[in-house]
UniProtKB/TrEMBL annotation:
This is Sulfotransferase. The keyword Transferase applies. It is an enzyme of class 2 (transferase). SUPFAM superfamilies: P-loop containing nucleoside triphosphate hydrolases. Belongs to the sulfotransferase 1 family. The keyword Transferase applies. Keywords: Transferase. Residues 60-334 form the Sulfotransferase domain. It comes from Urochloa decumbens. Its EC number is 2.8.2.-. It comes from the Eukaryota. One of its GO terms (molecular function) is transferase activity.
């Protein structure tokens, strides 16, 4: 695609508004096409900055990767609670746990959003100040990641995917908060054509699927529906993968269960901070406070938290069509939804 920002000329100008505005767009969804993927227009400069080396890797980095509306918020909470359990016990006896005062997005930042903010300076400052091992998140396709993440033996990636039908319904509800006129049928059509946020969805999943097959010790591939079915088993696996397995004493004390309870949909949705009609969290770390801009209030990240809600929004015909598109694109990969 000649208009992608992958040419040297466009690279030179990328980051400047002019270069972003030269990329193909899907204005209805605030998207730009960048290196074969559809990304949020305002995040393009951050992606370019990261690709150009603005992100300085550190041993032990953990990147949580997902397409939007696939369980990112939940994964951020679970990974944060698991990694920090030594300092912040997740049990009910610790009412001051950061996740009881702050939205998960204020505990684990999106890298490309950080590097897009304030000319990129905020990104480096926040990243440098995060304590090791650092936890960060991205919606980037695997193909967009710099080698400092994708090929770094000291960096682990945890990916979460979700049935694209539920992802789409979730995305529609979310997008309507800032675009009330968005018709579900328009979003559906865009998704089938690969032009929705983080599309093409099949490429997003395949990139991480293939990476997890090639390097299972560096890329953990999770499914939202599997996590709903067996959250504790998945948290135990997550802890093991991150090099922080639950000790027999922790297992006996039910620490993994505590993590799951702390991060459960019902608990998180009911927290004052996540009910509040505000973005950002008063209780978040001073580092991340104020970094999130205010388009979406905290409550928008918690809707139903179930599998199968697509049936309330799609006809069987639509479901067959989207399933068919996915099957066709994923054929031969060894992966299916
Ligand atoms: P629904 O809109 O289907 O309810 P993301 O975090 O990637 O933006 O995804 C949001 C989806 O995850 C929403 O799905 C939301 O309700 C669900 N979700 C948020 N927190 C969750 C949690 N703690 N457990 C399970 N699902 C959660």
């Amino acid at each position: 695609d000649a208009a992608d920002a992958s040419s040297p000329l466009e690279e030179q100008h990328a980051g400047a508004g002019a270069a972003v505005s030269a990329l193909p767009s899907n204005p209805k969804l605030f998207l730009r096409r960048y290196q074969g993927t559809w990304v949020l227009e305002t995040w393009v400069p951050g992606i370019v900055a990261i690709q150009r080396g603005a992100f300085a890797p550190r041993r032990g980095d953990v990147v949580l990767a997902s397409a939007p509306k696939c369980g990112t918020t939940w994964l951020k909470a679970l990974a944060f609670a698991t990694m920090s359990r030594g300092v912040h016990p997740p049990g009910a006896g610790n009412p001051g746990h950061p996740l009881r005062r702050a939205n998960p997005h204020d505990c684990v930042p999106f890298m490309e959003k950080l590097f897009a903010a304030g000319g990129g300076g905020i990104g480096s400052r926040v990243m440098d100040a995060l304590p090791s091992p650092r936890l960060m998140a991205t919606h980037m396709h695997h193909s967009l990641l710099p080698a400092s993440i994708a090929e770094n033996p000291d960096c682990k990636i945890v990916y979460i995917c979700r049935d694209p039908k539920d992802m789409l319904v979730s995305m529609w509800h979310f997008s309507r908060k800032i675009r009330p006129d968005l018709e579900f049928s328009d979003l559906f059509k865009a998704a089938c054509e690969g032009r929705c946020l983080s599309g093409p969805t099949w490429d997003h999943v395949l990139g991480y699927w293939n990476a997890s097959k090639a390097s299972p010790e560096r890329v953990l591939f999770l499914r939202y529906e599997e996590m709903l079915r067996d959250p504790v088993g998945n948290v135990i696996e997550l802890a093991r993968f991150l090099g922080r397995p639950f000790s027999p004493a922790e297992e006996a004390a039910g620490v993994a269960v505590d993590v799951v309870r702390l991060c459960s949909f019902e608990k998180m949705k009911d927290l004052e901070v996540n009910r509040a009609a505000s973005s950002g969290s008063a209780g978040s770390s001073p580092l991340l406070r104020g970094v999130r801009e205010g388009a979406f209030v905290n409550s928008s990240y918690f809707r139903r938290g179930e599998a199968g809600d697509w049936a309330n929004h799609m006809t069987p015909e639509m479901a067959r069509r989207l399933d068919g598109v996915m099957e066709e694109r994923l054929h031969g990969s060894g992966f299916s939804f």
